[in-house]
Amino acid sequence: xxxRGIGITEWFSRIFxxxxxxxxxxxxxxxxxxxxxxxxxxxxxxxxxxxVLHEGNTYHFPALPKEVLANLEEGGLIPHVRKExxxx
Length: 88
Prior knowledge:
Shape: elongated
Structural class: alpha+beta
CATH topology: Aconitase, domain 4
Distance between the termini: 20 Å
Number of strands: 5
Order of helices and strands: EHEEEEHH
CATH superfamily: Aconitase, domain 4
CATH architecture: Alpha-Beta Barrel
CATH class: Alpha Beta
């Protein structure tokens, strides 16, 4: 998922997290290494495995379920549901 503008922080409220996913915005909660990552840094994120690679370091976060990944890949909940219903 080659995207820019991914939200990475130590904590999101559940409603913010769900709203972001429903709108197709990838966000992750990263407990370790958060202080090492600065705005504009290049990071590699594997949402399926729950791994962030940054400057030779590996950090872990809860992997996103396949349903959430499908929402992100489709651009959000509404496009995902339209595709599922055959109305894309």
